[in-house]
Amino acid sequence: MISTVMNKPVAGSRGRRPGSPDTRAAILEVARRRFLDQGYRSVSLRAIAAEAGVDVALISYFFGSKKGLFGAALGLVANPPELLSSALQGDRATMPERVLRTIVTTWDEPDLGGQLEVMAVALMQEPEFARLFREVLEREIIGRVAEYLGGADAPQRAAAFSAQVAGIIFSRYILRLEPIASMPADELVRYLSPGLRAVLRSPHPGWR
C-alpha cells in the first residue's frame, strides 16, 4: 500500500506552528487521514489547517494547492493531477502528444514508474483508496481536461480521453502487452496520438 513516512508534531507545542519539518509532517498526517476518511471533495484546506494548528497560507507555501497536498499526503512523488497540469500547457493542437510523452517519460523512469505501479495495484486491491482516487480523477483530471476543451459535451470527451489514457497505461505498464510494452516513446506517440486526438473532437455537428 502507498504510505507516507511522517514525524509526530513536537510535544507541548501550542498555537499556530511555524514552517518547520515537524509542521509539514503534522499537516500531512491530518490531510492523509481526512482524505481517506472523508474523500477528496469534502476536505477543505481550511479544515486541515485548523486541525493541524497552522495558517492555511502555510499549506499553500508547502504544497501549492489541494492536489499538491493530496499527492504529498499519499506519498506520490509523481502526482497524476500535477503531471496533467504541466501537459496541458501549450498548443491545443499538440496536447495529445504532450500527454502521451508525459506519461511515457514518467512511467519509464524506474523510481517514478515503480511508485505509480504500486499505486495502480493499490487501486485494484483497496476499495477505500480506489474511491478516493476516483474522486481526484473526476475532479482534477477529467474536470480539468473538460475545462481545457470547452463546449457542450466537454465532460464526455474528457472522460473518453481519460479512459483511453488509462487503457494505454494499463496495456504498457501493468499488463505489459506487446508490442505496446516495448515500443520506443516516439513510436508509441506516433501510433496512439491520432486516436486520442479523434476522441477529443465532438461527434455532434455544431459543437466544438
What does this structure look like?
The chain has helices spanning about 20-40, 45-50, 55-65, 65-75, 80-85, 95-110, 110-125, 125-150, 155-175, 185-200. The chain has about 210 residues and is mostly helical. The chain has two domains: about 20-75, Arc Repressor Mutant, subunit A, CATH 1.10.10.60; about 80-200, Tetracycline Repressor, domain 2 (Orthogonal Bundle). The termini are far apart. One of its GO terms (molecular function) is transcription cis-regulatory region binding. Pfam families: TetR_C_16, TetR_N. This is DNA-binding transcriptional regulator, AcrR family. It comes from Parafrankia irregularis.
Primary descriptors:
mainly alpha, disordered N terminus, 208 residues, 10 helices, Arc Repressor Mutant, subunit A, Tetracycline Repressor, domain 2, 67% helix
End-to-end gap: 41 Å
CATH C-level of the largest domain: Mainly Alpha
CATH-defined superfamily of the largest domain: Tetracycline Repressor, domain 2
Oligomeric state of the chains present here: single chain
In total, the number of domains comes to 2
The main β sheet shows up as: none
Range of strand content: under 5%
Overall strand count: 0
Order of helices and strands: HHHHHHHHHH
Mean pLDDT: 81
- Structural class by sheet pairing and helices: mainly alpha
Helix content: 55-70%
CATH topology of the largest domain: Tetracycline Repressor, domain 2
Broad shape: globular
Q: Which second-level CATH architecture of the largest domain applies?
A: Orthogonal Bundle
- What's the tally of helices? 10
Spans of 5+ residues with little confidence (pLDDT < 50)? Answer: 1-17
> What's the Cα radius of gyration?
19 Å
